[in-house]
Design a protein that fits this description.
heterodimer, A: 485 residues, tRNA-splicing ligase RtcB, eight-stranded mixed sheet, seven-stranded mixed sheet, 16 helices, B: 145 residues, alpha+beta, Archease, Possible Chaperone, Chain: A, domain 1, three-stranded antiparallel sheet, 26% helix, 46% strand, globular
Chain lengths: 485, 145
């Protein structure tokens, strides 16, 4: 497997495949990566990014972030902006786990205070934040109340006592996509999701206790503004999404679009997972409204989990959340499509930006940022594998080149089946313990699938994102305790 | 269902789980695919008892979309009804469209007895194939996990 012919280096960490790469491409493919990361990308990334470049209404380029790897329809790490009038919306450009995202929570606690209580803390988090398959969430709502969650997102959670208004200010879109329309959601999706509010899920979903060591601070001033202001500071990072609800929304509309594409819209099906509909069509608008509901379910899910984390820390340390300084740093969405204004060729345009396994990264001064982060740029969270650590970064002005989008994680390099053949869950758990990482896993088989060697280097990914000028590193966080879904 | 099918997980995709299901008939392949889904979901699918029953009837334009819908229906019932189900009787008819009727049997998820493994999000259309081979029938499926 080699790199595709015609791939050109056009920037310090930027490569381009011109429209001649595959017939039908409307725009080039641009890949943000170091040479090493590029070599590690599976060849399907280039094919899938080229397929995306063929979609009607795509503007500027089909982008791949440094952690790009094979996905359904779009590659994971794919970014595509569509003209809102002539362009399409594609569930494959968003993913099954709509608004799967990351939340980072800081505390005033240091590692020396947490270390003696780590087992207690991790056990309590594992017990009180349901993970794995089939466990109901710790927030019980009726089907009608769930529709309110879909309309309001994290706002619903705070309104019902799960958190404080400051949490919302430090959440992308204040934790609510305003275009949500529960009437566009199937009864099946409601039935599948309404018991799952307050669940972590499985696969690559996790909740991690982390430490920011002094040598992991890249920019002390920015780190301080983001809440990292003392040596060996402890934080909590977690990754989860819209659970079965979001998956059902994606499945429902994928089927709707596949039926309508050839007959109603006269659109060819390049790849069934790249099913799409004109954004301005009724089908496109309905999916957008349903997708926003799933995004809101996810924001609410992460908000109630933050509340539960506060409860656990308060119980273990016998102090209030205020006394412990537990505060949301930021919550970022990974799998969404959003209407945003961007300059293309010097002209401001309203675009539907698909980010699949990619993070929005607004620069300093952006009007959509809360006052707390207006001067710093948006906090960006890149989650690494559970063995290697994660990064807090910030958006930068030069991120305009990728519609202010950056990486979201490490990106897999190996199948789950292969990872399981190479290590047993028990063995990995022991190895992680030897490296000072305590793990509680809902499934040991699932743990083996998430081994560090199955992922790209998160250090490489964060460095490439900085080198390409799409975000810059602020804090490196190391795992010490992990609840694995 | 005539004859028992079988399945095998493959190394095809980096993020998720893919498998090939084989059998003498489309019915055997569909049943084997359901078993692969259960194997992905719990550590010991053989421990799932036949305590609950559900009837299922589906219609899609072709066998591939029918298999996709069938697997997604099983995933839906796992979340919506907390049920782990497998087909006991399954019949497929092809007369212009593809239709399936099945009696599903299984039981409610019990984390203490079932050693849950992976929360499969969806069966996907990626590289989905159902075809007749010289030895019977075969399906390729990728599960998003």
């Amino acid at each position: 497997m080699g790199l595709p012919p015609g791939l050109k280096k056009i920037g310090p960490a930027l490569f381009e495949l011109g429209v001649e790469f595959r017939a039908g491409m409307r725009v080039p493919v641009r890949i943000v990566a170091s040479e090493k990361l590029l070599e590690e990308m599976d060849d399907q990334v280039f094919v899938q990014a080229a397929n995306v470049a063929m979609l009607p209404g795509i503007v500027d380029a089909s982008y791949c972030m440094p952690d790009a790897h094979w996905g359904y329809g779009f590659p994971i790490g794919g970014v595509a902006a569509m003209d809102v009038r002539s362009g399409v919306i594609s569930p494959g450009g968003i993913g099954f786990d709509i608004n799967c995202g990351m939340r980072l929570v800081r505390s005033d606690l240091t590692w020396s205070e947490v270390e003696p209580r780590l087992h207690e803390l991790v056990d309590a988090l594992a017990e009180r934040v349901p993970a794995g398959v089939g466990r109901p969430g710790f927030v019980s709502v009726s089907r009608d109340e769930f529709r309110d969650v879909l309309r309001e997102g994290a706002v619903w959670a705070v309104r019902h006592g799960y958190g404080i208004s400051d949490d919302l200010a430090r959440t992308e879109a204040r934790g609510c996509f305003a275009s949500a329309g529960p009437e566009c959601v199937s009864e099946c999706a409601i039935e599948r999701g309404f018991r799952q509010l307050g669940t972590l899920g499985s696969g690559n979903h996790y909740l991690e206790i982390q430490v920011a060591r002094s040598e992991g601070i890249y920019d002390a001033e920015l780190a301080k503004t983001f809440g990292f202001d003392r040596p060996e500071q402890v934080a909590v990072m977690f990754h989860c999404g819209s659970r079965g609800f979001g998956h059902q929304v994606a499945t429902d509309y994928l089927q709707t679009f596949l039926r309508a594409m050839p007959k109603k819209f006269g659109l060819p099906v390049i790849d069934r997972e790249l099913a799409c509909a004109p954004f301005s069509s009724q089908e496109g608008q309905n999916y957008f409204a349903a997708m926003c509901c799933a995004a809101n379910m996810s924001f609410a899910n992460r908000q109630v989990i933050l509340h539960r984390i506060r409860e656990v820390f308060c119980d273990v340390f016998g102090r209030t959340a205020e006394e412990l300084g537990i505060r949301n740093v930021y919550d970022v969405a990974h799998n969404t499509a959003k209407i945003e204004k961007h300059k293309v060729g010097g002209v401001e345009r309203t675009l539907l930006v698909h980010r699949k396994g990619a993070t929005r990264a607004f620069p300093p001064g952006h009007p959509e940022l809360p006052p707390e982060y207006r001067a710093t740029g948006q906090p960006v969270i890149i989650g690494g594998s559970m063995e290697t650590g994660s990064y807090l970064l910030a958006g930068v002005p030069s991120g305009a080149a990728t519609f202010f989008s950056t990486a979201h994680g490490s990106g897999r390099t190996m199948s789950r089946t292969r990872a399981r053949k190479l290590v047993r869950g028990e063995e990995l758990k022991a190895r992680m313990a030897a490296h000072g990482i305590l793990v509680r896993a809902a499934s040991l088989r699932g743990l083996a699938e998430e081994a560090g060697f199955a992922y790209k280097s998160v250090d490489e990914v964060a460095e490439a994102a900085e080198c390409a000028g799409i975000s810059r590193r602020v804090v490196h966080l190391l795992p010490v305790g992990n609840v694995k879904g | 269902m005539s004859g028992k099918g079988y399945y095998e997980f493959t190394d095809d995709v980096t993020s998720d789980l893919s498998f090939v299901a084989r059998g003498a008939t489309p019915e055997a392949v569909f049943a084997a695919a359901a078993e692969a889904l259960l194997t992905a979901t719990v550590e010991a699918p053989e421990a799932i008892a036949a305590r609950e029953r559900r009837s299922l009837a589906l219609e899609e334009p072709d066998l591939e979309l029918l298999l996709l819908r069938f697997l997604n229906e099983l995933i839906y019932r796992r979340d919506a009804e907390s049920l782990l189900l497998r087909p006991e009787q399954l019949e497929i008819m092809r007369d212009g469209s593809a239709r399936l009727t099945a009696e599903l049997v299984g039981e409610a998820v019990d984390a203490k007895r079932h050693a849950l493994s992976t929360d499969v999000k969806a069966a996907t259309a990626y590289a989905l194939r159902v075809r007749e081979t010289s030895n019977g029938w075969e399906a390729n499926v990728t599960l998003d996990v």
